[in-house]
Amino acid sequence: MLQKKQIISNVLIIFLLTFATIIFEISLSRLFSYLLSFHFVIIIIAFSILGLGIGQITYARFNKKIDNSSLFWIAVPAISIFLSFSLLLVLSKSGISSLTSFGLPVFIVLSIIPFIAIGIVYAYIFEANKPYISTLYGFDLIGAAAGALTSVFLLNTFNLVYVVGIVISLLLLVLVIYTIANKRRFVKVNTVLLLVVVLLMWFGKDTLNFDIPTGKDPSKDMSRLMNNPSLQSKIIESRWSAFGKTDLVKFMYPDNSESKVMFIDGAAGTDVVDIDELAKDSIKLRKSLSGFPAVFAINFVKENEKDSILIIGPGGGIDIAAAYFSGYKNIDAVEVNPSFVNLMKKYNPGTFFDKKNIKVHVNEGRNFVINNQGKYDAIMLTIPVTKSSRGADFYGLTENYLFTMEALADYLDGLSENGTLYFTMHARQEVYKMLANYLEIQKKMGVDQIEALKKIYIYSNGMNPVLVINKKPFEEKMIEEVHLTAHYLELDQDVFYFPYIKQEGLDTIVQNVNYKWYMLDNILYDISSGTYPQSKLWETAPMNLKPVTDDSPYFFNYNNGIPDAMIIPLWLGIFIVGWFLVNWMAKWKTISFSENTTVALREKFSALALISFLLGFSYILIQGYLFQVLNLKLSNPSQSFSLLLFTFLLGNGIGSLMTSRFKRNFSKKIIGYTALIIVACVLTVYLLLPIWYDQLSEFWIAVFLLFPSFFIGIPFPLLLKIAASFKDKKIISYLLGISSIAGVAASIFTIVISILYGYRFVFLFGLIGYGLLILITYRYKKIKILQQ
User: Which residue, of 539, 573, 606, is where some domain finishes?
Assistant: First the structure.
């Protein structure tokens, strides 16, 4: 039996190991979000997490060799993270891109190696502590919960390289604890090594704050502009946070003029605009505002309707300046990225902080609209796109939740009686998609398409179309004036529509070519006249222009069917499911157990493996749905994910710790507590949340999530307790690996299902998974394959 000190040390080791792993995983996602396009982040992170399962299965296959050199393997995670992360930084400076056939595989390999090493150590510690498996698994989950919450603080406080240095220090601490607890050699050497690393980090904080360049990717505007030979550029200041990396860059042009631009994760540049400077220079003022498309529409607003305006995503301040010089008396601006606001407080206080009638809030725009009781005369969204992946699913962009039907309904509710929304978009397809949302909302309110389109008008300079939505129908006289002025200013390019205006067009043959021209967008005009049903807007489109809901919040997905970015991850998920089914049907003949490999043993392992796979799969499906439902109640995307993950894992950990009291009838308890999972989830989603959703605070969100997560954390440690009855040192490791790999596949399928059918189907499949688990466990128990 293990000594009490060894048990405590092993619990501490597993806590620190998972604590450091979660911080490293989130840090890695931040690094790749900066280096690469978000769709490459999906692929690499999916493979990285797969590394945990591969590591656990690797230990199962080579446990004797690993046990004989355990001290070396305990040291490998810290070493592998140091080497892998260093090489990733070297590759980023050398300019290797994920777009090359060489780049992406290298990024995947370098990312997956540390997780394989961590998975090996993880399995080794679990196998060495079979009698205390529930306690160990409980602290594993609590360590992961603590890591999820701590990662936000660390990334908001220190730069990314320093945070990874903290991760390495934690893993070196694991090595020191292990050598002391097991009375191994090199205790003094490892302790000194840890102290040296900590001291170097403490005294070298500024040295570790070196620049990481963006990858050579078309979506990285910052890299493209800074490499333009006709421009001179200089990074004024950079800041890492849980949201990503924010850079303030100064550009010098050939005509001796200069500008400052802010970037988030190397993309989505926004010009820094100083109100005080514009007020001193009328020519510069006209030039700046003329480049801001929404100004045209604001100029036609009556003075008595300019009491208050809300700007969602003010970026460098052009939106604020436009509202300020247009005469709005009270200006609220909501920015989701705290680094943006902090940099503007330092470098552009005249726009963001010095004016009494301008207030800047760090919050998620839609959340602010919902929670703010005031009614605005105008709400403005000017291409609020950061191109930064959310931590929750590694696919959805932060901005997707700003552009759903429910979000649009929230904005309309936030307007005064005659208030107006101003959407400045990238292109025609975004306008169509937002209109699809709008028309569907109006239809549900009993407003037909003819009346609905009297409340909107659209104009475009050929690059950034502006969609204007009024709460009430526009006055015909006002529309005629705006329409004529738009023609005069050549704002009739690309998509162009005004109500009450008669369509004009040309349909003729020029040199055997049929030439067609219409003044107004012909599709919108036909819908406004009742010639076409509103569904014509998206049903006949070659791309996905369907209305977007919170249940499937992927506004920027224009693929019909599965998005291109999900093809590689989807094949990975299919491969994982196929790999499991082939081995399960073959009774895992590829595995040779240490005990006498009998048919009965293989049948028992096959039963345990199937339950483990279903548990890992269903766990992620339910988690994904609960996070999606509760996420909108929180004010910051990155912090929302960390808080939800912390609460969910904490509840799992508490449930797991409770199973340490269970001594027998484990299969029966798996059936009972899995049934309670289904009941708790159904009650939470269909009863408790609908009743209290509007009143939920962050505290009550945590309480609500703890209820189902407590029961969700119980079945798997019970399964491990059954596996612990085997003397073989492979059973637990294989089950851990199978569960981890199933979780990777489930994460991929969660995204795919939610895109194709919505998150409600993700939840349904999760419940079905747990239901199957009950039936399968009952069957195995009945035929006496599962016995303790």
Answer: 539
Q: Which residue has the tokens 């919902």?
A: 370
Question: Residue 344's CB: how many other CB atoms inside 10 A?
Answer: 26
d(CA 286, CA 322): 10
Cα distance between residue 284 and residue 44, in whole Å: 45
Would you say residue 752 lies in a domain?
yes
Condensed to tens digits (0 to 9), the pLDDT of residues 286-339 reads 988 888 899 999 999 999 899 999 999 898 899 999 999 999 999 999 988 888
pLDDT tens digits, one per residue of 354-413: 999 999 998 888 888 988 777 899 999 987 655 444 443 434 444 567 889 999 999 999
Q: Which DSSP letter does residue 214 get?
A: P
- CATH number of the domain bearing residue 641: 1.20.1250.20
Whether the Cβ atoms of residue 730 and residue 594 lie closer than 8 Å to each other: yes
Q: Same domain, yes or no, for 512 and 625?
A: no
Three-state SS string over 483-537 comes to HHHHHHCCCECCCCECCCCCCCEEEEEECCEEEEEECCCHHHHHHHCCCCCCCHH
CB 395 within 8 A of CB 565: yes
Q: How far is it, in rounded angstroms, from Cα 464 to Cα 343? A: 27
Pairing of strands 267-271, 244-252: unpaired
Q: What is the pTM of this model?
A: 0.89
249: helix, coil or strand? strand
User: Buried b / exposed e across 438-457, counting CB within 10 Å, b at 16+?
Assistant: bbbbbeeeebebeebbbbbb
Residue owning tokens 């990396």 = 245
Backbone angles phi, psi at 24, to 5 degrees: -65, -40
User: Has residue 557 been placed in a domain?
Assistant: no
Strand-by-strand arrangement of the 466-470 sheet: 358-362, 330-335, 308-312, 376-382, 415-424, 466-470, 456-459
Residue 439 has phi, psi (to 5 degrees) of: -65, -35
Band the pLDDT of 192: cuts 50, 70, 90: low
Same domain, yes or no, for 302 and 195?
no
Residue 278 within a domain? no
Q: Indicate whether 208 and 319 sit together in one domain.
A: no
The answer to whether residues 244 and 199 belong to one domain is no
> Pick from 487, 508, 539: which residue ends a domain?
539
Return the structure tokens found at 47: 């493979």
**Residue whose structure tokens are 């419940």:** 767
| Residue 172 domain boundaries | 1-215
